[in-house]
Known about the structure:
Blueprint: H1 2-35, H2 39-51, H3 55-67, H4 75-87, H5 91-103, H6 111-122, H7 127-136
Helix pairs in contact: 1-2, 2-3, 3-4, 4-5, 5-6, 6-7
Amino acid sequence: MKQRITTFVASGVLALALFGEAMAGRLEDGEAAYQRGDYETAVRLWRLSGDEGNVYAQFNLGLLYSSGQGVPQDYAQALVWFRKAADQGDARAQVYLGGMYRVGWGVPQDDAQAVAWYRKSADQGYAEAQFTLGYTCTPAEACRRTTPRPSSGSVRPPTKGTPARRSTSA
Length: 170
């Protein structure tokens, strides 16, 4: 009986290790595809990892959909992927969600939701969220918008930057 338990546990550990390697491999392969301009491959690989819950892939897909790199620009899809990452606690995705609510990209404009997402990110120590809260909020205003909303002609996608890479530090 002890032999069966040991074999079962060892098999489970091996399966988890192989699954983790496959997820990491797809994420890294997606990064390499993105760097060489093969956005179609990057999207395909990141979608596989994102569907399995990989927060980095989810965030990267949000970036691609928000900017229209490799996919048609689609704020609703960007919102889906950013929310998946944000719901797992990704501070960057929380800031992007806040920005989407603040301006109304893919969602009805909602300052209260924007501030809620900025706060979640800021509470994790994410400097961009802390700056945004400080810039847009004062205690007397209870975090209402203090700057005018841009006109529709001046609205640009949230980013055209490079998708995130996995951090090797904690």
